[in-house]
Amino acid sequence: MSKQGPGAGDVLRRLEERERVTHPAAVSHGTRVWRIQRHGATLGWMRFIPLEGTQTSPTPWHVYYDGTDEHGHMAWCRALPTSTSACAWAVQHAGEMRRRTRELGPGPL
């Protein structure tokens, strides 16, 4: 007997699990976008951005400061492999997140 690969249902289930966000600091703000909050204040933002044409980027979770750069774009901070690690990093570096945000233009909202 030959071993069969995963079915479409298995692949979709794994993709949904990869995008599932359970960190208590993450608040859903639309498709693949979460606000990272601590004590009611926004620390930054997190987006799930897989590599183009694939869902298997090694670091698909991007953290942004709550401010805009000189071009009016959300100011990127870093990329991490999981939503939990992205949120945890932002919470652990809250001081840095707030300092950098103060140097930027107004946030996206």
Helix/strand layout:
Elements: H1 8-19, E1 26-28, E2 33-38, E3 41-48, E4 61-68, E5 74-80, H2 83-92, H3 94-103
Q: What does this entry look like structurally?
A:
The mean pLDDT is 81. The chain has a five-stranded antiparallel beta sheet with strand order 1-2-3-4-5. By secondary structure, it is an alpha+beta fold. It starts with 7 loop residues before the first helix and ends in a 6-residue tail after the last helix. It has three helices and five strands, in the order H-E-E-E-E-E-H-H. Strand 2 (33-38) and strand 3 form a beta hairpin. It has one domain (23-103). The radius of gyration is 16 Å and the shape is globular. It has helices at residues 8-19, 83-92, 94-103; strands at residues 26-28, 33-38, 41-48, 61-68, 74-80.
Oligomer: single chain
Strand content: 25-35%
Question: How many structural domains?
Answer: 1
Write down the overall mean pLDDT: 81
SS element count, helices: 3
- In which range does the helix fraction lie? 25-40%
N→C terminal distance: 57 Å
Numbering strands along the chain, what is their spatial order in the largest sheet?
1-2-3-4-5
Q: How would you sum up the global shape? A: globular
Weakly predicted, low-confidence segments:
none
| DSSP E strands, number | 5
Largest sheet: 5 strands, antiparallel
Helix and strand composition category: alpha+beta
List SSEs in N-to-C order. Answer: HEEEEEHH
